[in-house]
Design brief:
Layout lengths: L1 H17 L15 H7 L5 H11 L6 H6 L18 H7 L1 H9 L3 H7 L5 H9 L3 H22 L7 H19 L22 E10 L4 E9 L5 E9 L5 H18 L4 E6 L2 H8 L9 H14 L2 E6 L6 H9 L8 E4 L5 H19 L2
Parallel strand pairs: 1-4, 4-5
Antiparallel strand pairs: 1-2, 2-3, 3-6
Helix pairs in contact: 5-6, 6-10, 9-10, 11-13, 14-15
Length: 364
């Protein structure tokens, strides 16, 4: 039914144009247009492409669009409740979405888009940008529309940090899907922990987060190329803003322990694409944990000769993950770092992971 409606709507616009009326949209309907071709070739899920297509045609159920159809309603933005909600306000001018553009280092592009006179002109400029920038903007617009819809229904939306994290997460997931054989971003076919090259130590870190109580735990383990444990640690945290802070604390604790042990050649493995992105760029410097992320980068630069940061699947980071989850049953603020004698439960976790890894290698 929706496709029939769009066909009839296009025909109505063409008739109005022939009769001298003004068409409601300046969007090109030629799907062979190079701009549309750029959209169809974007390496993102079809649902995001469909959203962009609707946005370019100004057919999203924004409140001003609904009012133009003769329906009486409150046209204020459901996010800020300050101004009427049209496409310009929703995606570019609302004070909350502006923060997301800023966090993703897209503010200059947002400023240039403000001068465009239609949704089609906005999307045309976005789609002609470099593919990685275009993809980041498209994902931001799609994710923001999802947040707006939740708030419009009276549900809880996402914070600016959560929106930014979601965008970067999806960006990294899409990148991994295209580059699975690249060891720098992790191979999703990998089963279990893999030893570092001789002369390096591997640090696995992870954080666990409970949204309802804003609490969590962190854990890390450092091993050599033979799989022997050099150090491990875990702790409980309270009053956390988000999961990224938990992940960053785990990484920071591990690096500080490594420096105290005089370790300088390391590989870091994390299963959070957002954390990897934050450490290897300045994309999250304005987030709640921005200062901690900056400290991690400074620590890596000043204290370590080799500091590869690798993204791995969760199943390859089980030991650090289990340490983080186990410690969540302790009192907030408690923590331990072991360098000589590992407690029994840590030895059991190491032994279990070793058996599972050997089983996956040998096969059924």
């Amino acid at each position: 039914m929706k496709s029939v409606y769009h066909v009839l709507d296009d025909e109505k616009n063409r008739v109005r144009t022939r009769q001298g009326g003004q068409c409601s949209s300046t969007c090109s309907t030629d799907h062979k247009d190079p701009v549309w071709q750029k959209l169809w070739k974007l390496p993102c899920p079809p649902k995001i492409k469909h959203f962009v297509w609707r946005l370019a045609r100004n057919s999203l159920p924004l409140k001003m669009n609904i009012q133009r159809r003769g329906i009486i309603l409150d046209t204020r933005c459901p996010v800020c409740y300050r101004l009427d909600e049209d496409g310009d306000h929703c995606f570019l001018k609302c004070k909350f979405v502006r923060q997301c553009w800023l966090d993703l280092q897209l503010e200059p592009i947002r400023q240039s888009l403000l001068s465009k006179v239609s949704a089609w002109d906005v999307l045309k400029e976005v789609l002609l940008l470099k593919q990685d920038v275009c993809l980041k903007i498209v994902i931001l617009l799609w994710k923001w529309w999802s947040v707006r819809n939740k708030l419009n229904k009276g549900e809880r939306g996402l914070s600016r940090d959560e929106v930014t994290c979601a965008v970067l997460n999806l960006m990294c997931d899409l990148e991994n899907g295209k580059m699975q054989v690249n060891p720098g971003v992790g191979n999703r076919g990998q089963q279990g922990w893999r030893a570092p090259p001789p002369g390096k130590l591997k640090i696995n870190t992870d954080g666990a987060f409970i949204k309802e109580t804003l609490s969590g735990g962190w854990g890390f383990i450092i091993r050599d190329h033979l799989g022997d444990v050099v150090a491990a640690g875990a702790g409980r945290l309270a009053a956390l803003p988000d999961v990224l802070m938990t992940e960053a604390v785990a990484c920071s604790k591990a690096l500080l322990s490594a420096t105290e042990l005089g370790i300088s050649r390391i590989q870091i493995e994390v299963d959070s694409s957002v954390l990897k992105q934050a450490i290897t760029s300045s994309a999250m410097d304005l987030a709640a944990c921005g200062m901690l992320i900056s400290d991690i980068r400074e620590l890596l630069r000043d204290q370590f000769v080799s500091d590869d940061v690798l993204l791995i699947p969760r199943n390859c980071n089980d030991l650090a993950h289990n340490l983080a989850r186990l410690w969540m049953s302790w009192d907030p603020g408690t923590s331990c770092v072991w360098t000589n004698h590992l407690p029994e439960f840590v030895r059991c976790l190491v032994s279990r992971e070793f058996v599972e890894t050997m089983s996956s290698i040998s096969g059924p």
